[in-house]
Amino acid sequence: MNKIENLLLPLIREAGKIMTGAREIEDTVSEKGGDSANMVTVYDVAVQNFLMQEISKIIPDAFFFAEEKENNAEDLMRDHCFVIDPIDGTTNFVHDYRYSCISVAMFSKGDVKFAAVYDPYADEMFSAVKGGGAFLNGEPMKVSDRDMAHSIVAFGTCPHMKKKMGEQSFRLAYALYSECSDVRRPGAAALDIAHLAAGRNDIFFELLLSPWDFAAGSLLVKEAGGIITNSGGEKIDFSAPSPVFAANPKVWSRFFEIVKNTIDI
Ligand code: IPD
Ligand code: CA
Ligand code: CA
Q: For 148-262, CATH number?
C-alpha cells in the first residue's frame, strides 16, 4: 500500500491551485458574526470541500474537523479524523498578501499522526509523520539553534478577540522585542509555526488559536526538534481553542520565563 503521505500530499498541492487561481476574492467575502476581522470567502469553502471529497475517496471512514463546518470534538478519537484549516491567513488571502496556507492534520485516536502545511505561493510543503521526522518539500528540516539575542519572534494578535487578548498580545511581543533580534506578525498562524519548524523564525506565540490553526504545526515542530505547549507548558489539548507557545530548545526556558513574567492567562 502507498504510504499515507504519498496519497495526501498531492491532494493538498492540488487544493493549493484553488488558492492561486482565485480571482476577484474580495467580492466573495462574508464576515463571520459581523466581525470585519473574521472573514470567509468562497475559496475557503471550495478548498475544504475539495479536500473532504478527495480524502474520503482514499479513506472512506474518514471524519473531518474543519473550520468552515460544524464539528464534534469526539471525532478526534476516531481511527481517522482530519483537522483542516482550508485557508489559514484568510485576511492575507483577501488582501492578496500571498502569505496564507492550507493546514491538514490526521488524527488517530486523539493523536496527530500526519501533518502538512502547504504554502501554494512559494510551493512549499511542510510535512511530518509521527516518529518519522519533518520535511520541507521532501528535504529534512529542523528548528533553529539561535539564542534569544539572535531570534526572530513571530506572533499572532488574536484579531477575532481584540478586546480580550489584544493588549496582552502586544505586551508580550514588546517584552520579547526587548531581548530578541526583532518581531514579526506575518498573518497565518499555521504557516508561522511551520516556519518555526523549518528554522526560519525561532519563537512563536498566539494567546488563543483554534485546533485547525495549530494541529498540523504541533507535529511539525515536535518532529523538527522544537517545543510547543499551552500556557501551562503542557501538551496542547486539541479538542478546544488554546494558547500556543513554541520555540527552539535553546531559547525555550528564557522565552517561557518572559511569558510567565509578562502576561496572565
Ligand atoms: C487566523 C490566522 C491569523 C491568526 C488568527 C487566526 P484564519 O486564521 O492564523 O494569523 O492571528 O488568530 O484565526 O482565520 O485566517 O484561518
Ligand atoms: Ca486559521
Ligand atoms: Ca481559515
A: 3.40.190.80
